[in-house]
Amino acid sequence: MPTAQIYLNCLSNKAVAKLAMKNENTKVFLGILALLITLSVFSDYSAQARSSKKLLAMNALFPEQINSDDISLTASNSISLSPSEINAQRIRQAFGVSMSKTLSSYTFAVTVLGKEQILLSYDIAGGAISQFNSEAEMLSHAWARLEQLTEKKELELRNRFDVEFIRAKGNDPTRAPKLAELYSLEYGLIHAIPSHLVTDHKGIRIHLFQAKHLNGQRAHWEKNVDRKPEIFIEGPEKGQSIVKSLERLILHELGHNSAYRVGWNPHHTERWKVTRELGWIPFNNPLTGEQGWAIRSKIDPESQYKLGVNGLWVRCNKQGQPLNENGERVTKQYLAKRLTASEVADIAMVRPATSYFPSPLEVYAEGMMIFRCDKESRGMLKANCPDLYEIVRREDQREIDICYGPGNYIRDLDGLLVKQSEQSTQLVAKFENRLP
Ligand SMILES: [Zn+2]
Question: Same domain, yes or no, for 191 and 288?
């Protein structure tokens, strides 16, 4: 089994949906490499994105937040913009921060998981900006303040979580995080405590890339040469912002770190027992050498489905060999019984939380991401995916107990760690009991 694995390929749902939409007409399918071995699987995510109401409802919890921070100020697009709009674009490009102007003020804000936080505000009275002679003067002041805030926020995250933001060295394509990205990362780090740690006291290293670098992935978690986990986050594509989904990305990747921290190891089947609880089995086809994961059906316990080459899920036996409608072995995948992703989600022994479930590893990370986000998403996970909810809830608490000792902390409904007490435990219990 190769160790130089492509172990965790972590596309965000939004990225998957976007790519799927792009490719829908031509039926060009996405490649997802996601297993413990060098298995390649391909999936038509358009089918997933279309039809499962529950999955869509879950995905809808995470709306687009910031539209664009990578706008080129070319002559053609700047010609129709006012000087204020061009300045707003420059601010967005440099800091990921939105600048808006009303009759009474200029405000500079970041949006974290749909909630706006105002960072700076300058009053306008009688057509003049308080303290300043012109917009240019005010902007120069704001720019300097935003630079200070960036430095301060990064320092704050480094001190609080002991995380490290990797800087470019030589040809290394990493870059410093922008201010808005730091707010997004902060959200994920706070909500994933203690999964930000790689040892008892050392936080995880985070690489943000300058530009497109990860070959189709949005982010991934992987161990470095010293066997220490690190997180890699793709740079924004032209015209798109990385900020819009960074909270989700970091929570997802820290979900992988959580699995690692509690001892799950996908490179050793026996140390990844949780996959069976998640309703998956590993398979090894002696005829073809193919290895991978198959998701089990609750309708027919003898049936399982593996992700096929055309994006559909293929019914197979325990060795991953394709089966037809009658359960007979067939030689080609197209002769087998095949289901769309949403059909598989509907019959899965343990329903995945989102439309992104190429492997049990990703089901785990997605479940952890949604569980830790906020009350609304946690409630949705409990209502739609009760089995997965129980597993991630238990594993999350196990990690907290390993880190801080049993009986000390629990995760509250907002995804934050709080002291374990009768009151905090009851709040969670009441919330859970109200749900199906
Ligand atoms: Zn992942």
Answer: no
Cα 133 to Cα 299: distance, rounded to the nearest angstrom: 72
DSSP 327: S
pLDDT tens digit sequence for 18-62: 333 333 333 322 233 233 322 222 222 222 333 334 443 443 333
365 C-alpha to center of ligand 1: Å? 6
Domain that holds residue 315: 273-434
Instruction: Count up the domains in the chain and report the number.
Output: 3
| 79 in a structural domain | no
Cα of 102 vs centre of ligand 1, distance in Å, is 41
What count of residues does the chain have?
436
pTM beyond cutoff 0.70? yes
Cis peptide before 194 (omega within 30 of 0): yes
Residue 285 within a domain: yes
Q: What are phi and psi of 268, to 5 degrees?
A: -130, 105
Backbone angles phi, psi at 338, to 5 degrees: -130, 145
Ligand 1 centre distance from Cα of residue 344 (Å): 19
Rounded (10°) CA dihedral 171, 173, 174, 179: 120
Q: Quick one: which of 203, 205, 214, 204 has its CA closest to 173?
A: 214
Looking at the structure, do residues 98 and 244 belong to the same domain, yes or no? Answer: yes
